[in-house]
Amino acid sequence: MTGYGVGSHENAKVKYTVEIKSLNSKFLELGIRLPKAVSDKELTLRGECSKLIERGKVNVLISSEYADQTAKASSINRELLKKYYNQLKDIAAQLGEDQTGLFNLALSMPEVIANNEDEVDEEEGKVLLNAFYQAVESFTGFRMDEGKVLKNDLEKRVELILDYLGQVEAVEGDRIPLIRERLSQYMDEAVGKENIDKNRFEQEIIFYIDKLDITEEKVRLRSHCNYFLEALNAADSNGKKLGFISQEMGREINTLGSKANNANIQQIVVRMKEELEKIKEQLLNVL
């Protein structure tokens, strides 16, 4: 499920801002970018994301802003820099080499520049976590708002399928008489009316029409649709369960179409399938 949330928290020393973005994914794919000073908090943040976000392709971006801008600035080891530079000058002089650029070379030597990004203290860690939880709360609110829109859309599409099922029942009454008439006319033309064994013909008609009966499919489809709506509104509603129910709805719609033997019903079935495909696409967004 897509989502977005941002949170920030600060004390007299530092302000942390946490931004969370997510795209659809069946599993939790988590990426965290955070300052080096709080890299030891990554495992904690990953654990909290697993519990609070559940799934999605999630990116967490953390930034810090210190009241004293020099607090985390890099520092130069002056004595070590001088030592490297003087040594390089001596060697260059002995070898008769050009001394241009020796200062930059000395500046790039190991441990000349030190990053003052030591691990944060406990108070700064709390500031970071408070900002994170604010971002998660905002992120969850975004998802819930999107979920309400999604729920209304799913309900509307299931209701459409039920309406289409009512249309099937409205045109179904003429289906069997038309099939019987068509078969009778075909037999009259093929073998002649006087050569037809009426009793055998009626038995075959009954057997054939029984195979085309769609009563069970209609009952099961209506039951699955109602169960889908019930599960959608349940407190423990989840995407996998709704996905299983939609699969059962699809089976009944497909069988209904294959047994219909009626152009009007088959057109209605196509519209049912269109709505069911939209339902399945939307279920990819449901946790």
Automatic annotation (TrEMBL):
Pfam family of the protein (one): YicC-like_N
Keyword Electron transport assigned: no
The protein's required cofactors: a divalent metal cation
Keywords, comma-separated and alphabetical: Endonuclease, Hydrolase, Nuclease
PANTHER family: UPF0701 PROTEIN YICC (PTHR30636:SF3)
Family from the record: Belongs to the YicC/YloC family.
Designated name of the protein: Uncharacterized protein (TIGR00255 family)
The species this protein was found in: Sphingobacterium yanglingense
Taxonomic lineage of the native organism: Bacteria, Pseudomonadati, Bacteroidota, Sphingobacteriia, Sphingobacteriales
